[in-house]
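Handout, section 3.2

Students often ask what a structure token actually looks like in practice. Rather than define it abstractly, here is a full record for ABC transporter permease. The first block is the sequence as you would receive it.
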Amino acid sequence: MLAIYKKELRSYYTSVIGYVFIALFLAIIGVYFFVQNLIYQVGNFETTISSITFLFALLVPLLTMRLMAEENRQKTDQLLYTSPLTATSIVSGKFLSVFTVFLTVIGVICFYPLILSQYGKVPMESAYASIFGFALLGAAYLSMGLYISSLTESQVVAAVVTYIVFIFTALMEGIAGVLPTDKKAAFVTFTVILIIICLIIYRMMHNLTIALGIGLLGEAGLTAIYILKPTLFDGLIIKVLEWLSIASRFSPFYYGILDISSIVYYLSITILFLFLTVQVIKKKRWS
């Protein structure tokens, strides 16, 4: 894992990608910091962090698009797959390298509240809680980008798909507001989601029995709930989308609260997509 980590980290700092990401990131933060905190003389640094979360999501593909896609395109992935390294070590090394680049920026912005404190009172709890939450948010986005990169040989495709997924996750709360709230629409929506999940399981495992079994059990459960207690479906789509929304999970940190459920949520998303990336590599290794 350490060899992969060093190789990937070196590639970021011996090419323009790492420097472009850091420069753009710091420039965006600098503009918001200058306008919101210095010009308007507001001591709440969490406002700046909250304002850049959407723009940050648009920068992440710069780092993640090449992580696995470049290996796939150059066929150097075959060297990785035939090496004694485990799939977990490969994925961990790549993720930790890109997360280190991201933490470089986090390390810099940790000084911003201290700079602000030289000119007045700054709520340090909410400022550093928001930075901590932002680091967790970044880990979740980076793991998602790594997974998407592992699915293709093209960096452009990886970047475009990552952009689409991130924009959807960022706008999830707004999308939830325009969706139908009646129980019939919720039942149909969750049936479609269940079918998609079963197709993904079949694609990953190539086992029709397991995929079909999960689908039938899930559909039976949905149907039973719809018949016995249909009121549970009222507004359920909105509740689920709001719960899944990565952006809305940042809110407690904005108010200086280290919310355990949000921390667990971000860590779960990160681990889930790293696990899925490991499964992709295992599948290619043995295919």
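Discussion prompt for tutorial groups: Residues 260-286 form the longest helix (27 residues). How would you have guessed this from the sequence alone?
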